[in-house]
Amino acid sequence: MKPTTKDLARAAGVSLATIDRVLNDRPGVASKTKTAVEEAVRKLGYERNQAAAALSRNRYLRFIFALPSAQGDFVMQIRKSVNEIESNGFGSMLRYDLLNIDETKPHDVATALSKLSKTNCDGLAIMAIEHPEIRDAITRLTERGVPVISLVSYQSAANVSAFVGIPNLQAGQTAGQLMLRFQKNISGSIAAITTTISSNDSVERRRGADLVFSNQKTFQLLPTTEHFNDPHRADDIVRKLIKTRPDLCGIYILGSEARLPLEAMNRYANDKKFVVIAHELTEFTKTQLADGHLDAVISQNTGHLVRSCVRRLKAMYEGTTPISSQEQVRIEILIKENTYY
């Protein structure tokens, strides 16, 4: 049996009210009495139930999701999943807030994170590019006692507490294998397009795809091009690829937002048929699968992502360990035939 506050009171020879004052660091307790309680805590191995403590103080835990402000389909889906757990009361005494961050302005992101502390944030999940200012802001936030989770894209250089998302290296390998298996050509070039390679998920996916293509000689994976969420740039990239690469036989969209390159491909492909692999299932990519413009989508469930962040942050706050098998986010391979509408 785990020791209770009654056990502490008995061991320290004090009242339950005194135990409550010491555990909550309230004034009005003599130094000698406080030492006796602390000694009882150590002797009995007492571990405080932080959730129960928050409930007794009528205090909500506040978890913040910092997401890119760009209105991409996948990010909008994550926001929707956050709002769903808020409305469904997922976890008692919990509040979920959204913090919009502009990844094109890392200094502003760092400034926003600098305003967070244990007084207004009990845990942060952040989806952001790799940048020195963001890295340092995350590290300083953890030093202030706030646990931080990397969401979707791992912050490899920052002092984060955990990562929630699919293993992106393996996701890239999966995309490479699917690209080769779906090919009807015997050789050719494969385009690689993403939003930005400053995002670690794209870097890892590219590494995974390279591992696959380095083991064969008939297909070439072209250098990665970035569209930076600019529709004109995405249009120009795809148009030039189709015009200048007569051997182009596949397009791999590495980033989590596939709409811009897919819309451009639909404009310029004409009667040419490419094998197209993308990431993340959204309403748009569902339609592209149904219409035959996409061959496969490598996805991760946004509801699972958000719930896993909450469970992990709650466990960190309470000093407990989450169930690792429950938190593993699976790589999902979706094609037209196994996607439900």
Structure, described:
- This protein is of the alpha/beta class.
- The chain folds into three domains: 5-48, 434 Repressor (Amino-terminal Domain) (Orthogonal Bundle), CATH 1.10.260.40; 61-165 and 302-329, Response regulator (Rossmann fold, 3-Layer(aba) Sandwich); 168-299, Rossmann fold.
- The chain contains 14 helices and eleven strands.
- The protein has a six-stranded mixed β-sheet with strand order 7-6-8-9-10-11, sandwiched between helices. The chain has a five-stranded parallel β-sheet with strand order 2-1-3-4-5, sandwiched between helices.
- Strand 3 (123-126), helix 7 (132-143) and strand 4 (148-151) form a beta-alpha-beta unit.
- Helix 1 crosses helix 3 (31-44), helix 5 crosses helix 13 and helix 10 (231-244) crosses helix 11.
- It is elongated.
Percent in helix: 40-55%
Shape: elongated
Name given to the CATH architecture of the largest domain = 3-Layer(aba) Sandwich
Specify Rg, calculated over alpha carbons.
25 Å
Count of DSSP strands = 11
Largest sheet geometry: 6 strands, mixed
Average pLDDT, to the nearest integer? 90
Assign the CATH class of the largest domain. Alpha Beta
By CATH's scheme, which homologous superfamily of the largest domain applies? Response regulator
